[in-house]
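My main concern about presentation is that the manuscript never shows what a single data entry looks like. The format is easy to grasp once an entry is in front of the reader. For illustration, here is how one protein appears when written out as sequence plus structure tokens:
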Amino acid sequence: MPERVAVFIDNGYLSKVVPKGTRIDFLKYSTDVCRGRERLRTYFYDCMPYQSDPPQYDEKVKYAQYCKFRDIIESLPRFQMRLGKLKKNSDGTFEQKRVDILLAVELVRLSWSHQIGYAVVVTGDSDFVPAIEAAKEAGVITTLYYSKGTVHNELLSAVDERYEMDQAFFEKVRRENNHFT
């Protein structure tokens, strides 16, 4: 089994648990969670901002800003962006579609093809338990990075290792300037 690690970041989850005003250095983040092992790749799951038809001015601005962010993430070494769809509900709220399944499929595929020996998952959703169990059956050591109070107990129980992303963790992976690295 290879010593390589794949990092799976559910950005919808991560963006909710990062302390206000903290900007993440995603390369530093990925290096830290790999704990000295070789990183095959970091998979970054998210959705493009919603745009109505025709798009409103503020939607266009948000979309353009996110395009810049996406380009920066994809320019980082060994980073791959995976995009789902954002659906607007009748009550005006938004819902991500396909993001969870994209992450789960990638986790299982890399595990069963023996491209990785370790998987680091950043999420809090118990929907990932079957994918975690499948990765473990393939011999992969699964590690969860989570924030206290925002993770399902079933997910905590399913993984091999778990690390809480507390204030000290976020300080360690904080971006030092206005540039992404």
